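Thread: "does anyone have the structure for this chain?"

Original post by V.I.:
We have the sequence but no experimental structure in hand. Need at least a predicted one for the grant figures.
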Amino acid sequence: MIGDLVGGHPRAVRLRIVMAFAAVYVLWGSTFLAMRFAVETIPPFLMAGMRHLVAGTLLLAWSWRRAERRPTRPDWFGAAVVGVLLLGANGGVAWAEQRIASGTAALIVATVPLWMVLIDWGRPRGIHPGKGVLIGLALGLVGFMLLVGPGELTGHGTVDAVGSLVLVLGSVSWAAGSIVAAQSPRPIVPILATAMQLVTGGVALLLVSAI
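Reply from O.Q.:
Generated one for you, tokens below.
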């Protein structure tokens, strides 16, 4: 995808980059608003489980015949670990949005890069963040605090403490899942791996919903 963006005339490249960021902002940001409306009538874990299981099943059917080989049991196990970490976090977001506004939820989840750096730094043979990365994270954290509001962060505002804690834990889970996915071997096509993660994570969310 990066290669597609950087090739061509500079003005066209800039336009494609702007359009790509706009797509991320609209599609990623609107997810939180959509979940906020969905949990008003559907239990959060049931909603998240159905959403991901349906999407994963459709993507699995589409990508299955395009794979060079069929996934093995270790492939499914790795996909399940990543799927539970990533989509479990998504289920936590859906649950928390019963108590927290979607905009605030999106801001708290935006701390994922911070957790990714910290987890990767602490793991064996992890990457030590450079000065530029630390400065960027610090500026991002300050911006996050200003957007949410100091009063709400210290408990004097209207942000629910339990919902905020679930969102933070979900952000940590998402960061851990992203690192596990990056470090895991991928013997199959990435889109099939994504479908497997959606299916296994969706099943796990439905089990949590049933419990």
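V.I.: this helps a lot. Residues 1-6 have pLDDT under 50 and may be disordered.
O.Q.: and The chain has ten helices and no strands.
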